[in-house]
Amino acid sequence: MKKVVALLLALCMSLVFAGCSKNETKKDAPKEKAQVSLAMLRLTSSAPLFIALDKGFFAEENLEVKPQWFDAAHPIAVATASSKVDVGATGITASLFNMAAGNQKLAIVADKGREEKGFPSSALLANSDAYAAGVNSIESLKGKRIGITQIGSTFHYMIGRLLETKGLTLADVELVPLGKLSAIMAALESKQIDACILNEPNITKAQTAGYAKVITQVGDVIPYQTSALFFSPDFVKKEDVAVRFLRAYVKACNYYYDAAIDKKSPEKLDEVIKIIAKYTNAPVEDVKLGLPYIDRNGKLLDSDIKTQIDWYSSHNMINGKLDSAQVVNTSLLEKALKK
């Protein structure tokens, strides 16, 4: 009898250990390799993405991230909404909200740069001649030609919001849609427009070249979730890969914040500046002067999304009704942060 009991105990123990071994193997199994297409602009606010690419944070998650470079926000929103790319990284525009209102299930998932008081990101500039002639305040924009990329763009929104803080409206200026950032800068330099809004490192480029002067930083006037990461309808469904992407992104946000916002290490700050310069094709000295605020954990200023939807709706730029809950999805970031 004792032998039978001993044999049964031994059998049970072997099954327990086998189960543990199986679970450990499953737990420690390498993550499945996945490819992720990423649509983005060469802007300083993409710094965490540059860091994650350059330092191998995506590779650590067994992700092969392939950047696709664009010249404006709208085409990125279109490519992401149609699942032609997995991840879009750019400004939050009326076109993006319209896609969401039309039941396209793209999702705003994380911060990629916001206007925060005391931090450079987007600024209102005048060409140097116009500035010298008195176009040096928001109020002085009345009757002037203002360059933007497209109707419904972040530039359109920022100009409108800035004007409203001084009792003016978009009807008080002449908007000049020019399509690309490079076209706006060329028009400012050739004085075909009086003023515009630019992002870093283009603000510093224009000032260094001597053809523009900053009137105000947007973040000093309005808080604004300028840009974000958003996922395509197909990519949202790939939860494991999406969470791994965000885990690598958060790691890069931590790295950027500690270096550029908290300035904990001069060596790390120099490294981050060089990485940004590499991906934006901007001189290191220009990058140093325009490091924007990005949340340490990539968290959205999600209350501002409602403010943006309300503004675009009031200016008849969104077809149909849209609630911010239809377009904001923070659950994937929360899962990434837990892991």
Structural class: alpha/beta
In percent, how much strand structure appears in the residues? 15-25%
Order of helices and strands: HEHHEHEHEEHEHEHEHEEHHHHHH
Distance N to C terminus: 49 Å
Query: How many distinct folded domains?
Result: 2
Computed Rg: 24 Å
Average pLDDT, rounded to a whole number, is 90
The percentage helix is 40-55%
> Strand tally, please?
10
Any idea of the CATH topology of the largest domain?
D-Maltodextrin-Binding Protein, domain 2
Identify the strand order in the major beta sheet: 2-1-3-10-4
The CATH architecture of the largest domain comes to 3-Layer(aba) Sandwich
CATH class of the largest domain: Alpha Beta
Anisotropy-based shape: globular
* Unreliable stretches: 4-18, 20-28
Tally of DSSP helical segments = 15
CATH homologous superfamily caption of the largest domain? Periplasmic binding protein-like II
Describe the structure.
- By secondary structure, the protein is of the alpha/beta class.
- It has 2 domains: 34-114 and 225-277 and 293-338, Periplasmic binding protein-like II (D-Maltodextrin-Binding Protein, domain 2); 122-220, Periplasmic binding protein-like II (D-Maltodextrin-Binding Protein, domain 2, 3-Layer(aba) Sandwich), CATH 3.40.190.
- Helix content is 46%, strand content 16%.
- It has 15 helices and 10 strands.
- It has helices spanning 2-28, 47-54, 57-60, 73-81, 94-101, 128-132, 154-164, 181-189, 202-209, 233-237, 239-261, 266-280, 284-288, 303-314, 331-338, and strands at 34-40, 63-69, 87-91, 107-111, 122-127, 145-148, 174-177, 195-199, 212-217, 227-231.
- Strands 2-1-3-10-4 form a 5-stranded mixed beta sheet, with helices on both faces. A 5-stranded mixed beta sheet has the order 7-6-8-5-9, sandwiched between helices.
- Helix 11 (239-261) crosses helix 12 (266-280).
- The protein is globular and about 60 Å long.
- It starts with a helix and ends with a helix.
- 47% of the residues are buried.
- The model is unreliable at 4-18 and 20-28 (pLDDT under 50).
